[in-house]
Amino acid sequence: MTRAFTYRGSAAHIVFGAGKRAETGTWVKKLGCGKALVLATPHQADDAAQLAEELGGLAVDVFAKAAMHTPIDVTEAAMDLVRSSGADCVVSLGGGSTTGLGKAIAYRTDVPQIVIPTTYAGSEVTPILGQTEEGRKTTVRGDSILPEVVIYDPDLTTGLPLAMTITSGLNAMAHAAEALYAQDRNPVSSLMAAEGLAAFSEALPLLKADPADTEARSAALYGAWLCGTVLGTVGMALHHKICHTLGGSFNTPHAETHAIMLPHTVGFNAGAVPEQLQPIADLFGATPGAGLFDFSTRIGAPLALKDLGLNETDLERAADIATENPYWNPRPIDRASIRHLLQDAWEGTRPAV
Ligand code: NAD
């Protein structure tokens, strides 16, 4: 039976397909712009320089200093270049860190953004910006933050190292898993979440076998679009709260943390919302948490928080932080059960459900 719901479609243009990166200049012009600032991390500086060269007179400069969690000082340095170069749009080439910088510039200037994602994090299709200043992370939402154009070109993901491919894919799947039971879900978000999970369930084992498999790269990027879109449209719950806590307070790496926590948080909620988690049961096994854990094992994903350098003694404070402010979750949260869940994730124990 269809419940009551509200639905808002995304205003972004999505361009998907191998080789589509070549259309970047066309999109700069379609946006009414002609002075693009190309953004990247230091690691992808060469790719950014090449893209700027391809854009020719449409690119004014390259800023290749994007960093994880969008530090304000990096944004301010980029803003100086936006002003001095007269840039009228940004082209963000990279993962969530680069997309975050482009969003931070758009938030301050409202210049349009073109994003060319090279990981599966999904930030390119959300109106959410997380920024850090002196170690403190704040999150803002807004229409100016949502990128105008996203060019998904799977050719650019073939070089994504296998370990990052796996963790980034599981990071994306976590958005879809929580979207399935979101309070404000709608029929379209549920369809997109299930389709995104299905795409990764097929693609990740194929990529483990052959990271250069172009069909599987395409399927994974398709999944990333779907999973990112639902992250941007419905509310998240326990899983994202715990990952935010671990990343923010203990500096655990973003995608790995999501990958390790996913079977445990889904297992925690499985009994409360079996119908909503049915797509996961169908894809990964009748007990969703255990099924996801077995899938992670099969594709060689990290399984234990202790392997990320988190100390067992940190789990007490993590449980405090993750439960100190009440938030909605399909299964009510109490400190003792979250502490238990964190212990299982720290040890890498297979969830029972
Ligand atoms: P990332 O962007 O930090 O990338 C990690 C490293 O991999 C970087 O050095 C990058 O240059 C490199 N890399 C990226 N793609 C590559 C490729 N194809 N080949 C080789 N190297 C490549 O990692 P991420 O997981 O994509 O993003 C994480 C960040 O995104 C976090 O700060 C997270 O908070 C943010 N995020 C935000 C949202 C949102 O909606 N606001 C959503 C998801 C993630």
Structural topology:
Blueprint: E1 13-16, H1 24-30, E2 36-39, H2 45-55, E3 59-63, H3 72-85, E4 89-94, H4 96-109, E5 113-117, E6 128-133, E7 136-141, E8 149-152, H5 162-180, H6 187-209, H7 214-233, H8 238-250, H9 254-270, H10 278-284, H11 288-298, H12 314-324, H13 335-347
Parallel strand pairs: 1-8, 2-3, 2-4, 4-5, 5-8
Antiparallel strand pairs: 6-7
The protein binds nicotinamide-adenine-dinucleotide.
Summarize the structure in words.
The protein is of the alpha/beta class and 353 residues long. It has two domains: 13-157, Rossmann fold (3-Layer(aba) Sandwich); 162-347, Dehydroquinate synthase-like - alpha domain (Dehydroquinate synthase-like, alpha domain), CATH 1.20.1090. Helices cover 51% and strands 11% of the residues. It contains 13 helices and eight strands. The protein has helices at residues 24-30, 45-55, 72-85, 96-109, 162-180, 187-209, 214-233, 238-250, 254-270, 278-284, 288-298, 314-324, 335-347; strands at 13-16, 36-39, 59-63, 89-94, 113-117, 128-133, 136-141, 149-152. The strands form two sheets. It has a six-stranded parallel β-sheet with strand order 1-8-5-4-2-3, sandwiched between helices. It has a two-stranded antiparallel ribbon with strand order 6-7. Strand 2, helix 2 and strand 3 form a beta-alpha-beta unit. Helix 5 (162-180) packs parallel to helix 9 (254-270), helix 8 (238-250) crosses helix 12 (314-324) and helix 12 packs across helix 13 (335-347). The model has no long low-confidence stretch (mean pLDDT 97). The structure holds nicotinamide-adenine-dinucleotide.
